[in-house]
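hi!! sorry for the late reply, been swamped w classes. u asked for the two structures so here they r. pasted raw, havent cleaned anything up. first the sequence of the first protein and right below it the tokens
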Amino acid sequence: MKRKFHSFFWHCALVVFLALTFSGWGVESAVALLRQHHDSPGVLRYHSQVSIKDKQGYAWQVLLFKQNYNHPVRDLRLRLVGFPGVVEIAHPQPLLIEATSGKLLSASDAYALTAPAPNVGEYELTDVLPKLPTTDALKLYVPVKGEKPLVLNIPQSVVTEWQWLVTEID
């Protein structure tokens, strides 16, 4: 009897192990990272940061954060930082955002007049993010000088994190 129980236990353990191992293969890993920083002594703020490669293989830093914590309505900003000397963002053109459903939204350029560097863009997402589906990946059409817009593919896991940052973290 003890031997049967021991054998049954190990068979069950093996089945559970295999189920957990193989079920993880189809899951897309999250590439975004919620980070906290000190805005002032004793005040923590959170932002979502991810590195996304474009078609040419250059990494872009994609950063979503809340701004104006002292106001009832907090602005949401999306900062895009491209590889220096390789790309120049065309200001003051808007960022176009496309969901997999084909829905197209526009985010205005927060750096319309002065950008800290030619490879940096920042866009107002306060009114845009609530209109985006939470279960879709996105395409960002970044306006760049002298070319058609550069496309950044944002995975669904990052979009979910953005929505979570907006609704759950204060």
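now the second protein. again sequence first, tokens right under
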Amino acid sequence: MSSESTEVWTGWYRDRSGAEAIAITVDGQQVSARIRGVAYTGATFAALSAAEKGGEALTGCVLEWDLPLPVVVDGASQQATLSCLLTLGERADLSLTLHYGGTAYESGIAGGDFEDALDRVRRQLPAGATFGRRLLQTA
């Protein structure tokens, strides 16, 4: 994804007070989401902090979202969906699951680093398969 493109992924925010639908916006520079009227931004998912409120970190919650992530095999692009689960507490725990070709490829818990988790999934794909695009450049 280039720094000029912006993607919006829909998902859910959950904490002790309940759940709400959210939109996560990702561009080449940052990740952002508006949760209960507060804008959160960060260079990574695990580093989301309030633009207001003195930069208070987003914590004590779970973010879930799905996004399309095509898989390319022998030059042919095939549909796949990446399911993301991020738990923000004392530490950030991220789990990714790629649903492709009738199989679920899981990252396991990968701390808060999206690229590391995505690389764990990528290494499980069949020989010759790769992702059809990059999702993040800096996050």
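hope this helps!! also noticed smth abt the second:
The chain has a mean pLDDT of 88.
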